[in-house]
Amino acid sequence: MKKRILPFLLVMTLTVSAFSLYSCVNNNGDSSESDTTKEEVTTTDNTSETTESSKGTPAVVTKHKYGDFDYWLSSPAITDDGLPLIVYLHDESDGGDGIDAMIKNEGLTKMLYEGGVYPNAYVLIPNLSKTEKNWYDVKYQLETLISLVSSANKIDPSKIYLTGVGKGATGVYEIAMSMPTAFAAFAPVGGTAPNIADIEKLKNVKIAAYVGINIEESDSAAISDFLFELGKINKSIEVFTLENYNASNYVRIYSDMEYNLLETLIGY
Questions:
Q1: How far from 87 is each of 72, 144, 169, 225, CA to CA, in Å?
Q2: pLDDT given for residue 179 in this prediction
Q3: First to last CA, the chain
């Protein structure tokens, strides 16, 4: 597998304000549902699921609910103050069957749960319910959730990152256009091309984009054309073209050590 990087480099610092959090956690794993401003937490023990290939300490993955959002939170073994937060937007293939299926379906949630990847960061994985059509429609709810999790875990507000695959990658592009300063960097994997008329909104945004090279797939061709045009105005964008990847296996990128996507992302 070869990695080709289009010759763009990015220079920009983004900051994100930290917000307040009110959460209610029962140490036995029970949850409180007295009102929608409270968070219910179910702890899922994944420490016995470490794979032989793991070279670090696996994360602790816990299931939560805040308002209408079900989500997983992966916490690193050493939870120092000021760590980064990676927000992952799932595709239909790994998250479309509900919160509990996410640790069984192939995707980043399962990788974290089984100890296959272990970034030195918190990873927030919300579940998009079947009643919602896309991630863009819940961007404000997502922004609130990120703020709450960030405050609760003393996240460095300048180190909040957004990544996603397939449908989630489309959400990454759309949210980047809508909230270009809300994240330190964006890493969409695949996805569909956003409206090129809005391309100026990404002029100063830090993006590491991952796309397949199968030009017969219309989505891949369209996103490649979009990124080519974006590269004309955003000289810092990095584009990784992926051999042997397509829409059906994009989720594998998160465990591919050749690309090391998560660590690359938090290095921005």
A1: 10, 13, 12, 26
A2: 95
A3: 24
Q: What is the pLDDT of residues 222-261, one digit of tens each?
A: 888 899 999 999 999 999 988 888 777 888 899 999 999 9
Say if CB 64 and CB 39 are below 8 A apart: yes
Q: With 70 as the cut, is the pLDDT of residue 145 above it?
A: yes
More confident residue, 250 or 14: 250
Question: Where residue 116 sits, what CATH number does that domain have?
Answer: 3.40.50.1820
Q: Which domain holds residue 7?
A: 3-266
Number of C-beta neighbours around residue 113 at 10 A: 21
For the stretch 237-264, what's the b/e string if a residue is b when 16 or more beta carbons lie within 10 angstroms of its beta carbon? bbbbbbeebebeebbbbbbbeebebbee
Overall domain count for the chain: 1
Note the pTM of the prediction, 2 decimals. Answer: 0.79
Q: How many CB atoms lie within 10 A of CB 182?
A: 21
